[in-house]
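How it folds:
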Amino acid sequence: MKSKDDNLIVVKSKAFALRCIKLYRHVNEEQHVYDLTRQFLKSGTSIGANVKEAIRGQSPADFGAKMNIALKEASETEYWLELFRDSEILTPRQAESMLNDCEELIKILTAIVKSTFENTYK
């Protein structure tokens, strides 16, 4: 039987959270913008935390609600990354890789949320 930790969104959201932690450290060492990066770190790591919580959801509606929270956190994280790029806290190259990963999470989470609510409320 496949482990729940082999789930694509679980694996990708955890890997993204680890990248967020590394980026947080790097930016604070270089730029010292603690308030901005703290918000980014919270939203970026919250994606995976909500995904893990959803996996253990009590019902399909609970699962969908938690995945929707993860989606909202991913959207917030995308916003912070765009601000970091546009304010030149990150170079376009640095931001682009993180933004691509974040956009991939948003697409996966959007599909999960849409499918869950379509199947739950038929």
About this structure: The mean pLDDT is 92. The chain has one domain: 4-120. The helical segments are 8-30, 34-55, 60-86, 92-120. The two ends are 29 Å apart (CA to CA).
